[in-house]
Structures
1.
Amino acid sequence: MENTNKLNTNVPLEYQTETGKLNILGFWIFLGAEVALFSTLYAAYFALKDGVMEGPLPIDVFDFNYTIIMTIVLLTSSFTSGLAIHEMRRNNIKAMVVWLVITLLFGAGFLYMEIAEFIHLVHSGATLGTNALWSSFYLLTGTHGVHVAIGIVWITLIIFQALKRGLTPDTAKKVFVSSLYWHFLDFVWIFVFTGVYLLGMVK
Amino acid sequence: MVEFIKDNLILNDPMIVGANISILLTVIVLVFVLTYFKKWKWLWTEWITTVDHKRIGIMYIISALLMLFRGGVDALLMRAQLTVPNASFLSSQHYNEIFTTHGTIMILFMAMPFLLGLMNVVVPLQIGARDVAFPYLNNLSFWSFFFGAILFNISFVFGGSPDAGWTNYAPLAIEGSPGPGINYYLLGLQVSGIGTLLTGINFIVTIIKMRAPGMTLLRMPMFSWTTLITSFIIVFAFPILTVTLAMMTFDRLFGTHFFTLTAGGNPMLWANFFWLWGHPEVYIVVLPAFGIFSEVIATFSRKTLFGHKSMIISLVVISGLSFLVWVHHFYTMGGSANVNNIFSITTMAIAIPTGIKIFNWLGTLYKARIQFTAAMMWALAFIPTFVIGGVTGVMLGMAAADFQYHNTYFLIAHFHYTLIAGVVFACFAGFVYWYPKMFGHKMNEPIGKWAFWFFTIGFNVCFLPQFLLGFAGMPRRVYTYLPEDGWTALNVVSTIGAVGMGIGFVIIVYNVYYSLRHSKMETTGDSWNGRTLEWATATAVPPHYNFPVTPVVKDVDAFWQMKQEGTANKKDIEYEPIHMPNNTGTPFVMSIFFFIAGFGLVFEIWWMAILGIAGSFGCMIFRSLRSHVYDKGYYVSVEEIKRLEQPFHKEA
Amino acid sequence: METENKNVQANRFPWSQVIGFLLSILLTFAAVWVGKITDLSYSQIAIIVFAIAFIQAAVQLFMFMHVTEGEQGKWQLGKMFSAAFFAIVIVAGSVWVMNSMH
């Protein structure tokens, strides 16, 4: 914890303090843990999806075009989050906030679509308790969705802090770490899309 | 409300009622003492909200000793029941509950916190740092562990203990066990798991980023190395447990079908996931133990650890392999020959790096002038005893042979030989060795040696016969047996050994009291003529900032090298103000909310669960909004440093 | 290394993000094409789309998240590589083991 105030102005704001560097490295380690977490959920889906059981099959109830749109929406939000960091490093707080708000709008759009999809699935007879396939489907996508929801609240809080206190090493670090988190949500979704939706549609 | 308490408070078992009363009395006495001596504020500011890694470590160790007491009582109750055939001391249900809580508590609430406690006390000192990377999270780690442990432990007085074994296999734990017991298991572990994961992240960052100048990775002391590798294993293994526990919680509370017998669920998947976490968990507890032995053996052999580099390489290899052997816990579940063969090979492969370590310790001892201190005796006893555990492990690792050994007392004896000889001996060795660092005086050596002899002899008398009982076919987890089974004599011997271990533990606790009264205070920071930086502090108990001036490292065994060069005790030091983190109360509050959420879920009281979850998120938001104020920390002034370093200057 | 001239770089056009974005979209549709349009067998499709998914994940890591950035870039990269290894062990291992149970 020493020398927290010693600044190295040759690097981006978020790396200037010792605390900033520690937090960013710590967050990467945390993302490693998140990989293990989602891997386990993913393993459960793959281990359970072929059991003999009643209830609708993914291929019958998935609307694949809808999922592609969801995927593009989340991917775009990941892109705009990257642009926000780009603007932050140009010290352009207004543009950064604009991109962050756009990111959040796309994130909210994704969440809305996911909830609508869940409602559709429940009406088609695929609920949490229907069978092992759908239990593991909801736990995997639901955990991802909860992460998105938490991300939205978190980034909203950070936007307010950045607006209130301006771009400091502290706020820059927070924006940067939250953007890592947001990219990671798309990182996870790539595999959910590929393994659950795309392979679920292959006969 | 009254109905709810009446329904769940266990009053029909005299032993549990006795426990109830003694817990109540202890609480009353504690509250009285704290109030009478006006210590509440002291408790809050000096301990509960502390971010000092040494104090957090001490709190971990105290909790671990309490849990060792509870787990030990469970063990003695089991031995009492099994001493003679057809005993009716415990009912079968009570016996099930006791072996479940014994296993769970010993691994997760005793071994892990004991080691995490020692890591907390030692590692920042050993790498020459002022604190861990995330002091706030460190406090949160401790409290979420603590409240998780409480949540698990209240099960036996309120609602009933879990009874499906510490492995908690489905379907027994889902269809076979109604009532709140298993929920306690699932949520208690969940809450304490948060703390463990955070500790893992914390120590990785601390060790990567905060080593003293000159301490390259290859110059890092072995205990810090094992902590680093253990933390990596924690970060990859604990999320698996989190998810697995969540799945079973969903199965039990929300009607999902992960591990159920119906609707496509697969109970075997629980075993698969449990051991995907569970095997790495074995290495999470045993690797730091190896680190402790390495430090103790090097210090009391007065030599640099033999084969420092090969030790590190074998550590890394073990950490990778630890994730590739999980199936050996369920060979008999019906895996194909291919699966069992491959996992037999990976399992036996682990013996190679572990063997390298044994030879390194022997190489260190070879031709050394050994000092037989109590800490060293634990370490010396560890080597042969652990080899027995390891060799029987290779026997069990062969899938074909495992069909004979599995689920017998042979297995029980094997893992106690690894976990007690490996982990518990290490905890005691580390406790004695670093005791002066924590409390400023040594533990009494003769009493410590009495404890050692009682415990180690008791241990061997207890568990060697169990190998034979296993060969004679005695299955594990049975609450009684018949006279004509022919297991009586060995069981009697085993129980005598268990009593010996119990006496050993009591002597250790007595030694804490005795040493507090009678031991001389240490006058220097270097109690054992140590080799690593934790002994380089000016006072026996380091001040909260650890080092007034950051040490510079030039070699493995940094402090030894300084002493050789005569640079260890510089007198004319220019101090500078030191930046330190603030105390914090939020993690304590947040952990109480975790507890509330957990308790609500155990009894399916939804408003309480939602309150708890909302409260914990509220704490996180509070932390996020306040972190810029909190992170500022404060400065220790030069006058303050001079005052705290005084004893050292006076002596000079 | 990269961090030292980051402030200078920051004034340029965000090439890495834009290229990453385009690549991601391209790869997504490539995967869809392989899965939906071609008539390869299930296992062939699975291998190809997972390969594509890993490439796309790498795009996120390197082009959006700049995993090698900062003083500890190597540790970060190492962490992600080991995470990938353990992810494969967890998923492929579990599926293989569970499918071989009788």
2.
Amino acid sequence: MQEILNIFVKSIFIDNMIFAYFLGMCSYLAVSKTVKTAMGLGLAVTFVLTITLPVNYLLETKVLQKGALQWLDPSFVDMDLSFLSFIMFIAVIAAMVQLVEMVVEKFAPALYSALGIFLPLIAVNCSILGGSLFMQERAYENIGQATVFGFGSGIGWLLAIVAIAAIRERLKYSHVPAPLRGLGITFIITGLMGIAFMSFMGIKL
Amino acid sequence: MSTEKPAKEALFSKKNRSLLTDPLNVNNPITVQVLGICSALAITVKLKPAIVMGLSVLVVTIMANLITSLMRNMIPNRIRIIVQLVVVAALVILVDQVLKAFVYDVSKQLSVFVGLIITNCIIMGRIEAFSLGNTPWKSVLDGFGNGAAYGGILIIVAFFRELLGNGTLMDYPVVEWMGLYDLGYKNNGMMLLPPMALIVVALIIWVQRAKTPSLIEKD
């Protein structure tokens, strides 16, 4: 239990997808103009991360890893399919996003039209594939840990995008040097927030 | 394409040249189009991984643009994203295997970021915006321009971060040779931390927009 809690807190604050690894920066910069849409996208990313990570975890441990196919036949003990992991992960993610898109379109048409093009583009949000690749690299022990890691990373991403959206709403009233307006100042603020988040780095969990 | 003139266009006509040079400044993928920042910033601590990453992305952009442009009339619109992803993922697997075979240490440093080339917005963005509607040769030029511009920014950022943060360039101790340490100069360890990459990019944006006022955002 404590292990799971550790992973959760760690993935939100210490290994924050945006501030520590810059994953998902494209939609982070493009959709952070208002808090409302930022919130919607953040929730969608959290949801997709939470459902793709367990699927990709199973794929990784039961199919792709060296010797993972032993459950099928003992003679597969030397089979190593890990070079296929990129294409398998991205296929799972694209399929899941398609599924989420259909569900949202059917049951929440308002949210669907608010998110617009960014819903299908979650498939190419680096934080989703990044989550799966970090899961592969860090070799979590069981499917529960992988799921919690996905959920926590999603929450961390949500926090980051909502925070920057709130700051950008306020930024309209300040005098930023003309060449820095818009993109430039957003980069600098993200950098400063990243420095603030680094205060979590010393914490050992 | 019906709009194309039957007369053959020169390989490096003015229009084609601008495909190559526009991304370097007025249409820069990182500082203007805001694409591909995801995997860009975390690998700019040192010059060498940044160069390897830039080259990998260059190769993938050119090849992905070429392949999707060749297939552009065959891909049904509804499933185009997944077709693009498969093409890009296949190319990235090739790049990953090549890196593992020839520059294993750099490949270890880049870790998950090689895989993340798949979701690098530059590649998907250029496929969506350009190569699905243009001839293969133009797409290759466009891919080359954007890939090179991306690599250029990476190298600039990595140059400053490695020089100021570590006092080295490509692992050669430049600052030590110049004897600056004896004069009391100290490396700024802050430059090695991830947030500084964002601030360096912001400074690049600042310089670029101050020089090209047409890029300044109205708000």
